Predict the structure.
Amino acid sequence: MAFTPEELALIAERAPFELKLSATEKLKTLMERIRKTYLLQIEPHNTLCPEQTDFLRGQIAKGENYEGYPYVMLDFPKFYGKGEIFTYRTMFWYGHYFIFSLILAGTHLDTYRERLRTNMARFAEKGFLVAKSELWDWRQEAFLPLDAARTAETLAMLNNLPFLKLVKLLEPTALADEERLLEEAKNFYCTTALLTTKEVETKSGK
């Protein structure tokens, strides 16, 4: 199979690879800033999550081939265990979008779902999406926009899943204003706290 002229031009040039390398390093630095932004918001002892959840270090990673495209991601706070997940995953997927997500599974799943039902209008107004069927699918077609008018249908779908994954997508151009992106991170964390704060459960008498 012969190389196309476009492929030969690409692999002969250093600039595209140098640009990708520098962009990836900047993304890793940004993920660390998001980790620190979350650190200012978290209240580990007032969060409905597994006791072993990592609220301090997190993990920044990169890969070259998710559906054919590179990515850089941060898992923080995070916990993965047998049947239990409590993880905020932040990811930039090259060629696609910037992703804020909260992935939940396990003991408190019913509570998270009930709180989503109660706050559906709030999440819908802020442009949140939910995963429709696959836990680790990050393609846009894998998500359903939240709509307060369709709360019953959405919850019926979610009740058939062993997890809840909330997502907010931003265009790549959001990276042009890093401070605003950090504010988006703060807002994402504070909004999802409607699901994960222990005080909510106490005040409701549950």
Remarks:
- Residues 99 and 169 are 5 Å apart (CA to CA).
- The first helix runs from residue 5 to 12.
- The mean pLDDT is 95.
- DSSP finds seven helices and eight strands in the chain.
